[in-house]
Amino acid sequence: MPGYDTHTRTLRLGGLDYRIRSLADLQQFADPDNHAQLLGISSAQWSLFGHIWPAGRLLAEAMATHDIAGKRILELGCGLGLASLVLRRRGADVVASDYHPLAETFLAYNAALNELPAVPYRTLRWDTPNDSLGRFDLIIGSDILYERDHAERLSALLPRHAQRTCEVLITDPGRGNSAPFTRALAAQDFVLVERRCRMDEGDTPPFRGRLLSYARTEVAAGVMP
User: In this record, what's one Pfam family (predicted)?
Assistant: First the structure.
C-alpha cells in the first residue's frame, strides 16, 4: 500500500479462521491529503486503527456466540472491524463505524479476503450527530473508553442511536475509565453486568479485562407498567 506497510495473518475467531490485513507496526503513517489531520488524528494516533488489539479479539469472540436474532447492530470505533466480520459471517444486520479515513478501506479488503459480503460502513464522529444512521438493538465496541472524555461523548451519543430496548456491550482492558460511563448509562436506565476476562496469555486472575454488558429492558425504559 502507498505510504505504509501491511501484513496479513490468520486469526482464529469463534472457532473459525479469518485472514486479516493490518498495519505492519505502530510506526506506520501516511496522510498525504491531510485527511487525518483535519479530523484531529495525530501522527502518533494514526496507526492505532490498523492493529489487532486484545480487546478487539475479545469482542469478536463474544460476537461469535452472542444472540443476534432480529437485531440491528452497530459497532463503534471498529478499526479493523474484527467483530463486524464475525457478525457478517453469521448473517447479522451489522453496521461498522469509525472516523479514521482508512477504516472503511481495510474493512472492505478484509471482508473480501474472507469471501464475505461487504460490511455496511458509516463514518461516525461521536461528537457529531448523524440522524441518518438510525437506531440499533445492540451497540458494541472494543476499548473505546481509552480517553477520559470518551465516557461523556459516548453516553451522549447513545440516546441518538439506541433503541428503547437495547444492549450496549464493550470490551475494556481495564484502563479505569469505565466508571463514569457506567454512571451515565445508569441515568439512561441501563443495568450493568460485568464479567472479568483474560486479555492475553499473560493475563492472570483477577483478569484485567472486562466484558461490560449494559442492558435496558422495556420495563426500565418505561414502555411497560
Answer: Methyltransf_16
- What is the spatial distance between Cα 142 and Cα 98, in angstroms, rounded to a whole number? 12
Q: How far apart are CA 158 and CA 178, in angstroms?
A: 15
Whether the predicted pLDDT of 55 surpasses 90: yes
Q: Is-cis flag, bond preceding 206, omega within 30?
A: yes
Tell me how far apart the alpha carbons of residues 29 and 34 are, in angstroms, rounded to a whole number. 11
Give the residue-averaged pLDDT of 103-118.
98
Distance CA(187)–CA(167), nearest Å, equals: 15
Going by pLDDT thresholds of 50, 70 and 90, the confidence category of residue 223 is: low
**Closest to 66 measured CA to CA, from 95, 86, 43, 38:** 86
CA dihedral sign, ordered 179, 183, 184, 190: positive
What is the pTM for the complete model shown? 0.94
Beta strand 209-216 with 191-197 is: antiparallel
Q: Which domains does the chain have, with CATH numbers?
A: 52-216 (3.40.50.150)
